[in-house]
Design goal:
hpI Integrase, Chain A; 3-stranded antiparallel beta sheet; globular; single chain; DNA polymerase, domain 1; mainly alpha
C-alpha cells in the first residue's frame, strides 16, 4: 500500500473509530502529509527508522518548536503501530523514534482582581440590552465560571443548561459527556441572555437552532468569534499580545486551586483524562505564592 493511501485510512480511523477531536485529527493529517513529502515514492514497508529520524531532523533545522516535534513523533509512532496491527507492514520502524522532550511552560493566567474587573465591565456593557453585549457577557462568565474548552462552549444547546442547578452538560474530548457547574454570576448572565438577547438573535436566522450561544446572524456561535472576543478583552489584562479562550480555562483552574479545591475535583471539572495534566496548575499556584512572598516578605 502507498504511504498516502495508508495515512488517509489511519486518519479516518482516528476520526470515526477513536473519535479524536477534529483539531487532533487535522494535526495528525498535517504531520503525515509532511512526512509523505520526505518519504516520496518509497513504499510504506520501505520506510525505515533513518527516514523518520531525517524527517524530524529537517523539522528541527526549520526551527519547529519542541512541542511540534514531539507531536510529529507521536503521530508517526501511532501511524506505524496501527499499520502493523492492520498487517499492512510486517515491522514497525518507529519503535525507537524519539523527539526532544516537550518543554512545559506555565499557562497564562489572569489575577482574580483582573477577572472581577473584566466581568464587571462586561456586565455594565450589557446593561443597555444590546444582544451581542449580553451574549458576550454570558459567554465570558461561562468560560471562566465552568472552565470549559471553547469547543465545549460552542457545542452547548439550550436544553443542556440547567439554571436551577447552575450546571451545563458539555461534550468533551473523545466524545465524553460531563456536567459542569458554574456560579451565580454566570447563571444570572445566561438567564439574562436567554430572556433578553437570544430571541432577537435567533430571529435573524431563517430557521431557529438549538444552540445556546448564537452569532450575529442567528447561527450557532463559532470558535473564531469566541477567540476574537476573548482576545480583545483579556489580552490587555494579562500583558500578552495573543491570548485565547484557553487562558480563561487556565485561570479558572488556578483560581479553584488557590481557593482550596481538591486537585481531583478540578480534574473532573476540566474533563482531563489524566491527573498529570491537571497538576500543571499546582505549579502555577506555587509560582504565584512564591511571587507574592518575594514581594511581601522583608527577608525574601
Amino acid at each position: 500500500m502507498e504511504f498516502s493511501e495508508a495515512a488517509e485510512a489511519f486518519v479516518a480511523h482516528l476520526d470515526r473509530v477513536r473519535r479524536l477531536s477534529p483539531a487532533t485529527v487535522r494535526a495528525y493529517r498535517s504531520d503525515l502529509r509532511d512526512l509523505a513529502v520526505d518519504v516520496g515514492d518509497t513504499p510504506l514497508e520501505g520506510v525505515d527508522l533513518d527516514t523518520l529520524r531525517d524527517w524530524l531532523w529537517r523539522a528541527t533545522q526549520r526551527g519547529d518548536a519542541r512541542a511540534t516535534l514531539a507531536r510529529r513523533a507521536a503521530a508517526a509512532r501511532s501511524f506505524f503501530s496501527w499499520a502493523q496491527e492492520q498487517e499492512i507492514i510486517p515491522h514497525d520502524p518507529s519503535l525507537r523514534l524519539i523527539a526532544p522532550k516537550r518543554g512545559r511552560s506555565l499557562p497564562t493566567v489572569a489575577s482574580q482582581d483582573a477577572m472581577r474587573d473584566l466581568l464587571d465591565a462586561q456586565r455594565a456593557a450589557a446593561a443597555d440590552g444590546d444582544p451581542i453585549a449580553l451574549r458576550d457577557h454570558a459567554m465570558l462568565e461561562i468560560l471562566y465560571g465552568a472552565g470549559i474548552r471553547v469547543s465545549e462552549l460552542c457545542g452547548i444547546d439550550v436544553d443542556d443548561v440547567d439554571l436551577d442547578r447552575a450546571t451545563a452538560r458539555v461534550l468533551g474530548k473523545g466524545a465524553k459527556e460531563r456536567v459542569v457547574p458554574f456560579g451565580v454570576p454566570a447563571r444570572d448572565a445566561v438567564g439574562a441572555y436567554l430572556t433578553r438577547a437570544r430571541p432577537a438573535l435567533a430571529a435573524r436566522a431563517s430557521a431557529g437552532g438549538a444552540a445556546l450561544l448564537l452569532g450575529s446572524r442567528g447561527a450557532r456561535l463559532g470558535p473564531r468569534t469566541v477567540y476574537d472576543v476573548v482576545a480583545e478583552v483579556l489580552s490587555p489584562l494579562v500583558g500578552a499580545e495573543t491570548v485565547g479562550p484557553h487562558a480563561l480555562r487556565h485561570t479558572a483552574a488556578t483560581h479553584l486551586l488557590d481557593g482550596g479545591a481538591d486537585l481531583r475535583a478540578v480534574q473532573e471539572i476540566l474533563g482531563h483524562a489524566s491527573l498529570g495534566t491537571t497538576q500543571i496548575y499546582t505549579h502555577v499556584s506555587s509560582e504565584r505564592l512564591a511571587a507574592t512572598y518575594r514581594l511581601a516578605h522583608p527577608r525574601a
